[in-house]
Specification:
The chain has 628 residues and is an alpha+beta fold. Helices cover 28% and strands 26% of the residues. The strands form four sheets. Strands 5, 7, 11, 12, 13, 20 and 21 form a seven-stranded antiparallel β-sheet that branches. 28% of the residues are buried.
Length: 628
């Protein structure tokens, strides 16, 4: 058995006469536009072009058939000639633009531009996410603010330029996939092309002589190729086989997955909703817009899209690492709740943990934060209770050092019996360092040594002005601070159960022993997220298939040669040169050789046929051929 050297580039033939029609097997004159029909017919032709259909359609990628500016051709004289030429030019340019838009090169450029366009959306405050940060940015940057506003950088994902890139990428992918899919379906429905005339020109080639009949060789080759999962059939004096269709399948899946991801992301952005709610132990929540502390949604989201459900926070449990380098790290972080679906749903119990949300319909309830809510009681000068609530405090550090505000708006009367309003600036630490330590910051996140520091104010809280206020901050612009008998500012650190009396019979405030905890929940509706995840996995597998699977063709020709001995030729052709193709052809040749072993070498006295004679049954000589 002899094989050719597969490491050399095949001869590309000669350049044809410019005055003649280019031969399909030769390189055309680079100064002329190739024949579109011939170009389409001979996509993927290797070697000297004699492969014909055997080397075509190894890929479904489109082929450019014209050069911009040559669409109109020769212009006929007169107005009608100009109109006809203009029409051909317009149609030609439109087709050329569409071909460029649906090319893989432009799709990758658009995908890159989309990635670049998303960077400002991550670095610059977005009005749809935090309008207050946008206002602060504009106030702090008098020059950049108006520029960013005109460029749409404060609402990147809904800007005109980002939407244009998004839509062009969407159209590009669809225009690329649809024709290639139909072409690939046609290839699957057809058969592998017949063997080219000269197999010696292929990158991988093997030949030997055998005493087996040509029909027996073809039957053995057909069986071997089908066992190796090739699509194979007998075409004339040769067996044609092809394998590696999953390469193009993976390529198409990758592009389809990109479209699915684009649609899913767009759907999710338009119909998403996200709201946060702080709930103290014993409190509840109903999924209506008025119940949220803050809420944001997509442009096409409506209140009717909210999933109807409600839940109550029964108990929050948190434990922390006590020793070691991870001291203070949460070990248990969970909220025990009871919930019901719909207006009259049956009550159920569950536990919500970090990264283990409660799923109700299209909504997910995440546990996102935690803190303490000291219970305080405020009495007026006559001892009447005018305020008794658990007041949530916002954490400032990992040890849950917290601050907040206590506001008594209604029902309070001062020592003279006049209606007034009270406000207390509060600072809470679950584990106090101790008096004389020089710090008021908490030493541990658990309730080991809780202390509540208060300073009181009286006057107008400003809640009747109609301007929204932060419930965790105290506006003292229209209030006066309480002072003690010495004229010093009234402030005190309270332990659970202790009371701070207000001067001039203004009443008192008590830090109750009952300290509750609160949990912050985030309720989200993100339609399309499952589709986006499925598209991402599909894109990864499709890309892997298109990169690591090689589409290749193999032909086995068996003909009767000189002396009645059967000449077996095997050759392989891939979409791109690969070291695996010669190895695979060698393995296949070995299997066929077992069924059709080599015949004894011919008598040296027998004259060899003339190599210049175009006898197709003679074994073609190949550069670098070796005999075994």
């Amino acid at each position: 058995m002899s094989t050719t050297d597969t490491g050399k580039t095949p001869d590309t033939g000669k350049t044809p006469d410019p005055g003649k029609t280019p031969d399909p097997g030769k390189t055309p004159d680079p100064g002329k536009t190739p024949d579109p029909v011939a170009a389409r017919r001979h996509v993927g032709v290797a070697a000297d072009g004699e492969l014909g259909e055997a080397g075509s359609q190894l890929s479904t990628a489109p082929v450019d058939t014209a050069i911009p500016g040559s669409f109109g051709g020769a212009r006929a004289p007169g107005a009608m000639g100009w109109i006809a030429w203009t029409g051909r030019e317009v149609i030609g340019w439109a087709r050329w633009f569409w071909r460029q838009l649906t090319s893989m090169r432009v799709a990758l450029i658009l995908l890159f531009l989309l990635s670049l366009g998303a960077i400002p959306g991550s670095l610059i405050p977005q009005s749809g996410t935090d309008a207050q940060k946008v206002a602060d940015f504009k106030e702090a940057h008098s020059v950049l603010g108006p520029v960013y506003d005109r460029l749409g950088l404060f609402h990147v994902y809904s800007s005109v330029w980002f939407s244009a890139i998004y839509i062009l990428l969407f159209v590009s992918l669809i225009g690329c996939i649809v024709p290639r899919t139909w072409q690939f379906v046609g290839q699957l429905r057809g058969r592998p092309p017949g063997a080219p005339k000269r197999l010696t020109r292929l990158p991988a080639y093997a030949t030997w002589r055998t005493e087996a009949e040509p029909e027996q060789v073809r039957e053995a080759a057909l069986k071997v190729l089908r066992q190796r999962r090739f699509r194979a059939h007998v075409d004339g004096d040769a067996v044609a086989a092809e394998k590696g269709y999953l390469r193009e399948t993976g390529n198409l899946l990758f592009h389809i997955a990109l479209i699915v991801m684009l649609v899913a992301f767009a759907w999710g952005q338009l119909f998403k909703s996200e709201g946060n709610k702080l709930i103290v132990e014993g409190g509840g929540f109903s999924n209506t817009l008025s119940q949220y502390d803050d809420f944001k949604s997509g442009n096409l989201f409506s209140n009717d899209d909210l999933t109807p459900f409600s839940f109550n926070l029964k108990q929050f449990t948190a434990t922390y690492e006590r020793t070691g380098p991870n001291k203070g790290t949460p070990r248990t972080f969970q909220a025990d709740i009871s919930y019901s679906e719909g207006a009259y749903g049956k009550e159920k119990k569950t536990t919500v943990k970090v990264n283990e949300p409660l799923k109700i319909g299209d909504s997910k309830v995440y546990l996102v934060s935690h803190g303490y809510a000291p219970v305080v009681t405020v009495r007026d000068g006559k001892g009447n209770v005018v305020f008794h609530e658990a007041v949530p405090m916002l954490p400032l550090d990992a040890n849950v050092t917290s601050q907040g505000a206590i506001k008594v708006m209604d029902g309070y009367k001062n020592g003279q019996g006049r209606s007034d309003q009270l406000g207390f600036s509060a600072f809470f630490v679950p584990t106090f360092a101790g008096a004389g330590k020089g710090t008021m910051f908490s030493q541990f996140p658990a309730l080991d040594f809780p202390v509540l520091a208060l300073s009181g104010f009286h006057g107008s809280l400003g809640v009747n002005s109609g301007i929204p206020q932060n419930v965790y901050q105290l506006d003292t612009s229209q209030m006066k601070q309480f002072k003690d008998a010495k004229g010093d500012i009234l402030k005190k650190r309270l332990l659970p159960g202790e009371t701070m009396k207000l001067p001039n019979g203004a009443g008192s405030i008590t830090f109750e022993k009952d300290i509750k905890e609160w949990a912050g929940f985030q309720v989200t509706q993100q339609p399309g997220s499952d589709w986006a995840l499925a598209g991402a996995f599909t894109a990864i597998f499709g890309l892997a298939g298109s990169l690591f699977i090689q589409r290749r063709r193999v032909w086995v020709r068996a003909t009767t040669g000189a002396g009645g001995v059967t000449v077996v030729e095997m050759a392989g052709l891939g979409r791109s040169e690969s070291a695996k193709l010669p190895e695979e052809l060698g393995d296949l040749a070995a299997l066929v050789h077992e069924q059709a072993p080599s015949a004894p070498d011919p008598d040296p006295d027998t004259p060899e046929p003339d190599s210049d004679t175009p006898d197709r049954h003679a074994v073609p000589s190949a550069e670098g051929a070796e005999k075994q």
